Amino acid sequence: MVFKAAPLNSGFLAISILGLIGSLLYVYPSSPPWGAAFFILFFCMLIASFISMNEATPDYQLK
Hints:
Elements lengths: L9 H21 L1 H24 L3 H4 L1
Helix pairs in contact: 1-2
């Protein structure tokens, strides 16, 4: 089975960066378990965006 990355839009990358910063600055100081959980979630979104930028082809989205 061959891995095929889906093309993600730039809004997904922007939300992951803003969520990462927001979870560190606002959520983590008031509730560390929730802050860590949101940090992990947005970090995974950021990694998915980086994989999509390198591997995905826009032709897949046009079909």
